[in-house]
Amino acid sequence: MKVLIIEDEVPAQRYLKKVIQEIKPYWEFLFPLQSVEESLEFFEGNEAKPDLIFMDIQLTDGLSFEILEKTSVNIPIIFVTAYDEYALRAFQVNSIDYLLKPVEEKWVQKAIEKFEAKTTSIVSKEEVKNIQTHVAEQSKAYRKRIWGNTAVSMEALNVRDIACFHSQNKTTYAQTEQKASVTIDFTLDKLEYELDPSMFFRVNRQYIVNVNAVKSIEPFYNGKWVLRLKTMEEEEIVIPKEKAPKFKKWVVD
């Protein structure tokens, strides 16, 4: 058995591989892929095809469905993602199962058992309905930890301790409550989906803020407001007019 993992987060790649190896120690792993572009190149030019694919849906450069639309991939797929809204679309392709992050070993075990039990990649309407019910019953799991990159190592950060995430020159930073700033391998768009909306708010294109880090807001102009954080009091974060009412309500709810 040859397994291919398509996942843009290196820690998630390693974790998933470790879990699969514990369940199936004799399975082999092809070199992991991290993007739509990289995957297209692999399937169009590589003769060593896997027997099973574990595939994240939202990759750095787009949705992994683009891979399946642009090339012929007749290989069973287990989708691993944080976004349950893609469930039905996933089962319109060669999907065996659909796992929500953070992934638990028992769900990987069940997905592998389903793969081994199948003799065809065709999924019936009844199976789609059953999976839809299963996904609906799972509560959305939001990210609790994230890797921060320092000059010499990767540091595991508790998300609740991060005052804000901000983007500058195509690099994303996490600002901790201790006022330290580290880079992370996420875009703000991806973080917006993975963070608990009761704790984090996308203020504008450059900032996602933690409700516990909010110090004050001040009227600006044209209905805009300026937000100040406890850890970045000198920084003026502009809240657009259309987001201001929702932000005010979010802070006090």
TrEMBL record:
Domain of life: Bacteria
MF term (GO), any: phosphorelay response regulator activity
Domain Response regulatory: 2-116
Keyword Phosphoprotein attributed: yes
Domain HTH LytTR-type: 146-253
Entry annotated with the keyword Nucleotide-binding: no
Chain positions found as 4-aspartylphosphate: 56
Key words of the record: Phosphoprotein
One Pfam assignment: LytTR
Listed InterPro entries: CheY-like_superfamily, LytR-like, LytTR_DNA-bd_dom, Sig_transdc_resp-reg_receiver
Alphabetical list of PANTHER family matching this protein: STAGE 0 SPORULATION PROTEIN A HOMOLOG, TRANSCRIPTIONAL REGULATOR-RELATED
The name this protein goes by in its record: Response regulator transcription factor
Protein species of origin: Flammeovirga aprica JL-4
Lineage, highest ranks first: Bacteria, Pseudomonadati, Bacteroidota, Cytophagia, Cytophagales
